[in-house]
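In this section we walk through a basic example: taking a raw amino acid sequence and producing a predicted 3D structure, encoded as discrete structure tokens. The instruction is simple. Fold the sequence below.
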Amino acid sequence: MVGSDRIGNGIGEIAGSVSLDKLKTNIEWAGKAAETYKATVPAQVAGLNSLKDLGLQIRNSLVNLANGLDSFWTQIIGTFAGLLIAIVAAILSAISVVGIPAAIAILVGTIGAGIASIFTTISAVDSLTNSIAVEQAAILDKVNSLGSAWPRTNTESMSHSSDWKRNS
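The resulting token sequence is shown next.
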């Protein structure tokens, strides 16, 4: 998560540094060009904030996916460990002829528990698949909110020296 924090914080810092109250251009200059700049900067700050939100959404989605995968593998390992322990216990019980009925009971019980655990794991995978779909939709919403073009200033209003006047 360190890398994603750097990206999100970096974009947030850039958005903060280009806001109108932080720009010297807005304070030191006047004229058509300065007004064009003032009109464009808020949309650019909003775009940067949208990028930050997208980065955070991607990070959160990846964390949720990783947690789901961890849960899945924990369930699988637990299921097979339980089955292995039960098989060993059944073998040890079956060493004596008297222990054979107990070994059969252990195996039947363990197989039933194992089947239940496998169905629980399948349900968890289904839930994870649904979560992935929700996360993808959230990321797509953030991408769509970015828009199709970066807001730019009208460079025609900045092309002549009279478009810029230094404030006194």
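Looking at the output, two observations stand out. The mean pLDDT is 80. The longest strand covers residues 29-30. In the next section we compare this with other chains.
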